[in-house]
């Protein structure tokens, strides 16, 4: 019988904002780890890509080896340390995955089964071959846009982050086997359970009983791997959920509190300020009005979401605001104003950019001829496609493919 994996203890209370922070949204970070990081528990989700060296990452008490090509998706419920090997330091590229903005611009919410797959799947993937080439190309593309903070560049970088997320989601779904009981320590399983059921009336006794354990054992295990007791960990999960929900347009504070699992607005305010150092309203205002470099206002207007979803799902059809208005039962003037206020762009330009983003993905990941790609994404002819592509990227599609795929045809 295989022996159960034991949790590895962290040393001290975890730090926050090591890789994340308001000044790091949509920016590429490069880090060199030559020893070991302190325990880290971010308030954001981050992607980490190992570009050199070797070592290990311990996540929620479980260790995973790292080498060039390791790709990691860390969530706010992960407490982790990264250790370099003895021979050479770990070189890493890091991006913060801004959930509110990304879900706003990728136009859909994941299915419940997808969420289960992401939660259950290991957060570390080892890449090689074509998969490694693909992720390296995407990080390179992100870096190329990193010096710009205009809405167009932000949209491109969000699209790259969306591709990172989709890559992990597809991998997780492939690996997800609900009937397979992968043996993990109690702390690992409890953290995932709490993170998935945060809105329910959870107690340490009920969660411990779910895993056939005692509340005292569960508390000890959680402190061992995260530095938090059960109630502290649950509150932190709820605060992180609330901090995301606060940025969605049309959500009242009472709804945010209830959605995040708090029993009252008073408890929500008190606990939020304890963990975030500011009230919910102050937190929202800081993110929306932090001076230069801020790329977003309140997000997720339901009407705008419908417009974007229509644009995304029908990108290969003729661009026609009248048809969009007819299908969505939204006046043309409302569509026009919403798109311009949010993106400083016209509806037609947004639809064309959506086509070009799809074309770019096909150029980088397939060997389809240019004419087939043009038709695939909704252009009448390759000449029109090439002209539009060149206007945005200042090079022809064939030149773009050659430059970003190392001459591969």
Main sheet strand line-up: 1-7-2-5-8
Tell how many strands the DSSP assignment holds: 8
Give me the secondary-structure category: alpha+beta
Reading the helices and strands in chain order gives: EEEEEEEHHEHHHHHHHHHHHHHHHH
Rounded to the nearest angstrom, the distance between the terminal CA atoms is 51 Å
| Low-confidence sequence ranges | 104-110, 290-295
Q: Overall 3D geometry? A: globular
Count, helices: 18
Text of the CATH class of the largest domain: Mainly Beta
Gross CATH architecture of the largest domain: Sandwich
Q: Report the CATH topology name of the largest domain.
A: Jelly Rolls
The oligomeric state of the chains shown is single chain
Largest sheet descriptor: 5 strands, antiparallel
Pfam families: HTH_18 (PF12833)
Organism: [Clostridium] hylemonae DSM 15053
Keywords: DNA-binding, Transcription, Transcription regulation
Protein name: Transcriptional regulator, AraC family
């Amino acid at each position: 019988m295989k022996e159960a994996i034991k949790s590895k203890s962290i040393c001290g209370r975890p730090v926050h904002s090591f890789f994340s922070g308001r000044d790091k949204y949509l920016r590429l970070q490069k880090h060199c780890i030559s020893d070991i990081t302190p325990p880290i528990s971010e308030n954001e989700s981050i992607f980490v890509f190992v570009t050199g060296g070797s070592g290990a990452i311990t996540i929620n008490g479980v260790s995973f080896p790292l080498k060039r090509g390791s790709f990691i998706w860390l969530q706010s419920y992960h407490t982790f340390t990264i250790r370099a090997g003895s021979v050479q330091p770990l070189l890493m590229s890091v991006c913060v995955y801004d959930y509110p903005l990304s879900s706003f611009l990728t136009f859909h919410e994941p299915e419940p089964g997808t969420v289960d797959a992401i939660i259950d799947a290991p957060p570390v993937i080892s890449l090689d071959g074509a998969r490694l080439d693909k992720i390296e190309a995407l990080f390179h593309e992100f870096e190329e846009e990193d010096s710009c903070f205009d809405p167009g560049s932000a949209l491109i970088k969000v699209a790259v982050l969306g591709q990172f997320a989709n890559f992990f989601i597809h991998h997780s779904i492939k690996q997800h086997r609900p009937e397979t009981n992968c043996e993990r320590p109690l702390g690992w399983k409890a953290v995932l359970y709490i993170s998935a059921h945060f809105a329910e009336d959870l107690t340490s006794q009920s969660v411990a009983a779910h895993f056939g354990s005692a509340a005292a054992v569960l508390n000890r295990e959680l402190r061992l791997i995260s530095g938090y007791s059960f109630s502290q960990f649950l509150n932190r999960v709820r605060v992180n959920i609330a901090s995301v929900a606060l940025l969605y347009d049309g959500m009242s504070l009472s709804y945010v509190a209830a959605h995040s699992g708090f029993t009252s607005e008073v408890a929500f305010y008190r606990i939020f300020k304890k963990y975030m150092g500011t009230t919910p309203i102050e937190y929202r205002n800081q993110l929306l009005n932090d001076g230069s470099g801020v790329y977003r206002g309140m997000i997720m207007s339901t009407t705008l979401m419908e417009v974007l979803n229509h644009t995304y799902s029908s990108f290969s059809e003729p661009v026609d605001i009248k048809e969009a208005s007819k299908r969505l039962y939204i006046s043309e003037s409302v569509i026009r104003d919403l798109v311009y206020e949010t993106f400083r762009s016209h509806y037609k330009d947004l639809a064309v950019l959506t086509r070009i983003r799809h074309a770019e993905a096909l150029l980088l990941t397939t060997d389809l001829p240019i004419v087939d790609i043009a038709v695939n994404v909704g252009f009448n002819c390759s000449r029109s496609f090439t002209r539009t592509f060149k206007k945005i990227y200042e090079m022809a599609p064939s030149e773009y493919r050659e430059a970003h795929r190392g001459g591969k045809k």
